[in-house]
């Protein structure tokens, strides 16, 4: 079990543990979303100071908790101004994401066609999410982009994954409207 101490960390872990003990994916992600919304409003829960420090050349990923017993992990992501992701998946893992600080743009995509290793997606609209909001991704509805739309402020999001997400598929657009899949290894930034 990996855990970083911060104000309210025990409460956060207890609530997430309770949610993950539900019996099906939908019940788990619903309970996690509700717990995350409560925790983000709770003034007694304060994420570690390191999550408010952006990296200059990439969005930062910091693991703040991992449950070996229940098999889930919690990653705080710090988005510098304008930083974002390519279109990607979660390798078949469910995920609940909440905005702790700032704002992010989330654009979900639907896979509408596949020919061998070529993929065609359709955007399902872009949502602007602010502090205290949370959503979930349940495969096969896991394709999306995330971006900090601000040109001056950071954003911090908390992501609870079914397991340790160490890689994902990234989809790179081509001129003909199709996407090519590339596997990307994900790294973690320092938590101190």
Q: What attributes does this structure have?
A:
192 residues; Jelly Rolls; seven-stranded antiparallel β-sheet; 2 helices; 15% helix
What does this structure look like?
- The chain is of the alpha+beta class and 192 residues long.
- It has one domain (2-185): Jelly Rolls (Sandwich), CATH 2.60.120.
- It is 15% helix and 39% strand.
- It has helices at residues 9-20, 25-41; strands at 2-3, 60-66, 73-79, 87-88, 95-101, 104-115, 118-123, 127-129, 134-137, 144-147, 155-161, 167-173, 179-185.
- Strands 4, 6, 7, 8, 10, 12 and 13 form a 7-stranded antiparallel beta sheet that branches.
- The longest helix is centred in the N-terminal third of the chain and has 17 residues, at 25-41.
- It is globular and about 50 Å long.
- The model has no long low-confidence stretch (mean pLDDT 94).
Brief digest:
This protein has about 190 residues and is an alpha+beta fold.
List the helices and strands and how they pair.
Layout: E1 2-3, H1 9-20, H2 25-41, E2 60-66, E3 73-79, E4 87-88, E5 95-101, E6 104-115, E7 118-123, E8 127-129, E9 134-137, E10 144-147, E11 155-161, E12 167-173, E13 179-185
Antiparallel strand pairs: 1-2, 2-3, 3-11, 4-12, 5-9, 5-11, 6-7, 6-8, 6-10, 7-13, 12-13
